[in-house]
Amino acid sequence: MLGPVLLAAARSDSIRRIVAAAPLTRPVVDRFIAGERLDESMAAVRSLAARGLEVTLDHLGEDITDPAEALRNRDAYLQLAAALKEHGLGVKAEMSVKLSAFGQALPGGHELALQNVRPVVEAAAEAGTTVTLDMEDHTTVDSTLAILADLREQFPQTGAVLQSYLFRTEDDCRALAGEGSRVRLVKGAYKEPASVAFQEKREVDKAYVRCLKILMAGEGYPMIGSHDPRMVAIGQELAHRNGRKPADYEFQMLYGIREAEQQRLVADGHRMRVYIPYGTDWYGYFMRRLAERPANLGFFLRSLATRG
């Protein structure tokens, strides 16, 4: 199976050197990752903001194996929050965090992740922005939503991500559709078993629409995370049907993907947020994305060949 092979490659320093040296690699990395340094990510934020786009920033680093790595990831986000505050970019940029980067998968990981992410959420609030908790595989959902509930007691603007391909997600949408709740809805990219998730694209799409209907009819703030033109159109129709103004929801897409569509949505008066990953762990990030769903390889390469 290709997935395990890619995961093994993600842990191989020798394969990393080969991939990093390949002529195709750098254009792919430059296209989809804002850079390795914090100042490069800030340059990307300013560039996108100048074009009317908003952003959410992800400092690369997940699936850690050492508590010291969790602290380094925490500190990287604290530096990011300080930079956003210094440059007055909090109104344009929020932060996305994967709790596995904060130690969620380590022994005592739930408490460790909460302990490490709380100062990041506090720093984000001081910078005039907020944090969204990315969702990972299905085994982390209960822990992530429990941490969300804890953080929202003091920071109600803290957001969450839900994945439509999980059977449970409609119920999770109902639970999170209340006033002040921020939810990014995505289809899901992890390889999940048939016991917990839809396996066919058609069923995942149908579930996405059902979930989006719940969020749009609720009192929260839906964030439509999709590059699918049909889902974008359905999102617009549901917003209109539920009397939502442009400030009451937003679209989200990945950095470097469907850039022309991102600009079109902004020109049409919609809020459009770009998900920007940055950091030195680009190799592991890229290989894990391919391992989660190997079909992503063709998607990335097609996007590289047909920019915008």
TrEMBL record:
One of its GO terms (biological process) is L-proline catabolic process to L-glutamate. Pathway: Amino-acid degradation; L-proline degradation into L-glutamate; L-glutamate from L-proline: step 1/2. It catalyses: L-proline + a quinone = (S)-1-pyrroline-5-carboxylate + a quinol + H(+). It is an enzyme of class 1 (oxidoreductase). Its cofactor is FAD. Pfam families: Pro_dh. Signal peptide: none annotated. Substrate binds at residues 98, 288-289. Keywords: FAD, Flavoprotein, Nucleotide-binding, Oxidoreductase, Proline metabolism. Residues 43-299 form the Proline dehydrogenase domain. SUPFAM superfamilies: FAD-linked oxidoreductase. Gene3D superfamilies: 3.20.20.220. The keyword Nuclease does not apply. Binds 1 FAD per subunit. FAD binds at residues 135, 163, 187-189, 201, 226-227. Its EC number is 1.5.5.2. GO terms for molecular function: nucleotide binding; proline dehydrogenase activity. This is proline dehydrogenase. The keyword Oxidoreductase applies. It comes from the Bacteria.
